[in-house]
Automatic annotation (TrEMBL):
Residues of the Ig-like domain: 407-480
InterPro entries: Ig_7, MetalloPept_cat_dom_sf, Peptidase_M64_IgA
Protein name as annotated: IgA Peptidase M64
Pfam families the UniProt entry points to: Ig_7, Peptidase_M64
GO MF annotations, alphabetized: metallopeptidase activity
Highest rank taxon of the organism: Bacteria
Amino acid sequence: MFKIIYRAISTVVVLIGATCAVYAQKYPIDTLQYQGTDKKVVNLVILADGYTQQEMGAFHEDAKRFTDYFFKTEPFRQYTNFFNVFAINTPSKESGAAHAGTADDCPKVEHGHKDLPARFNDFPKRIAVPEAQPNTIFGSSFDNYGLHRLVIPQKNDVIEKVLADNIPNHTQVVILVNSPFYGGSGGKYATATVNASSNDIAVHEIGHSFAILADEYWAGNQYAIEGPNRTQSADPKHVPWRHWLGINGVGIYAYGGNNSPAKWFRPHEFCKMQYLVAPFCSVCQEVFVETIHQKADPIAGTKPALDTQVDAASVGLFALKLLKPSPNTLRVKWFLNDIQIASDLDSIYLNPGQFDVGNNVLRAEVRDTTTLVRTPSKQIYSYEVKWNINANMEYAMRLPASTWGDTLETCYAGYQALSMKQPEAGVQYNWYDSVEGKTPFAVGTNLVSPKLTKSTVYFVESVWKGKKSDRVPISVEVLPQIQAPKNYKVEKQKDGKTVTITLLEKADTRYSFLWKKMDGTVLYEWDEFSDEYVRSGKFNNVMRLKIGDGEKHISVQKVDNEMTCVSAPLIIEIK
C-alpha cells in the first residue's frame, strides 16, 4: 500500500511581499464547464503558476486533464452538474517552480533521465531536481518545512487579488504549478504540480479545504481535533459515522497502537484521506455531498421567474431548471394551494379553472434522495420555490386538446392512441363514447382504443375538484380494409432444393407483401447465387424458400406502402 507521503500544512500561511496595482487586473478565462449560471453553483477555479504566456495552451490542457480526473472521483462524478469550472490564464514571467534544494528528502539521484521534456505529465518523482528560482506570478516553491514535495504558493496576496478581480464568487481554488516533479499542498488553496500523481494530492487537499475533512493518517498532535472523519471516542453509539458502521468497510480504527495515535480513531482503513491511490470512503463521500448541497442549489432557474406576477387567465407552463446528479436522485413534488398535483416532473401545465378566486400558491419541492447519505440529520436536502398566481374571477375549465388534433386515422382492425396535448397537472381526463354519456369508460391522459372496424367518435372532458369542462369530440377515421391476397401457386424447382411461391397479383407500386414464418419472424428470399436469404424487390410477389428449413406453412400480408396498413394474413401450405 502506498501511504500518503506529505502533510497538509493548513494552519501555516507564508507571505512574501508583493506589490499589487490598485486597479483590477483582468485575465482571459477558459470556461471548462458551465451550468448556465454562476449563482447557487459550486464554482471551481483553476489558476496557473509558472506558465509563461507562450505556455497558456499547455495550461489549458493541464486544467482540462485535472478537471477530467476530478470528475472521475466519487462523489464528484455523480454531482458533476453542480459544478462550474473556470481556468484563469495567469501568465508568469518565467517557467517552472522555485526549488532551493534544501530539503533533506530532495531527489538528487538520476534514474536515467537526462533531459526534461517540455510537457511530461507522468514523470518519475524520484529524479534529480535542478535548483531554480524562476519569477512566477504566485511564487510556488518546493522544499517547504523540510519536505521537498511540499509545494506552496508564496504570494497569497496576489492570489486573492486575482480571484477578487476575476471570479470573486469562487468556491474552491486549485493552483496548477508548471513542474513535472511530484508535489503539492493543501490549506486554503489546493496546489499540485502537473505530475500525474499530483492530481491525487489536489483531490485529497480539496477534502480539507472544501469539506473540512481530517487526514486519516497521523499528522501530529497539532492536528488532532474532532471532525466528521476523526474522533477521540471509540463508542459505537457516539462516533460521528455511527450510521455507516458495518457498511462498505466502515468501522472504528485506531490511528496507532500507542501514545497519542492510539487515542484517536478514523472510519476506514483505505480512504483517500489516508492513501492517495484509494477512493474516498463512504463517510467522506457523505460529507462531500452535504458540503455540495450547502454551497449549491439544484434549482438553478425557473419559468416563469419567481419575481414575475402570474395572472390566472394566461397561465400555462411552469418549469424548473434542475442540476441533476447522475444517476438522478432528485425527487420533485408539485403543490397547488397545498394539494399535491404532480411528482417527478421538471415542468407542468396548469388550467385557469384550477384556481380559487384571489391569490393562489404553486409550490415545487425538490429533495435529493441519494444513498450516499445515511446520517438522518443530513438527509434534509430539500429545496422549494413558490409562485403567487392571482385569479380576479372564477374561471371555467379550459377545454382539453388532443396532441394530433380532433381527427385521427387508423388502419382497419387497428388500434389508435389518443393523447392529451400538454396535460395539466392534477387535472383528471374522463373519456366517453357519447357526448351525453353518464359514466366514463376510461380515465387518464392517454387512451388506446380497441380494434376498430368502423369510424368512431370519442369525447373527453377536464375535471378538477368536481369542476368540469365541456366535452371535446375526437374522431377516429378507419381507413378502407386491405384485401388479403387470394390466388397463388407453389412450385418446387427442378433442382429439388428450393420452392417458389408466386402471388398472382397485378403489379402495383403502391403495394408490397410481408412474408413471415408462423412464429412471426420475417422471411427473406433465398438467393441461390449468394447462398443466403436477401431482401426482395419493391413488388415482392415472389418468394423463394430453401427446402429443408422445417417450415410447413408461411403467412403473407398485403402492405399499403403509402399508409403502411396491412391486410389479414393468408396462410400458405408448403408441399
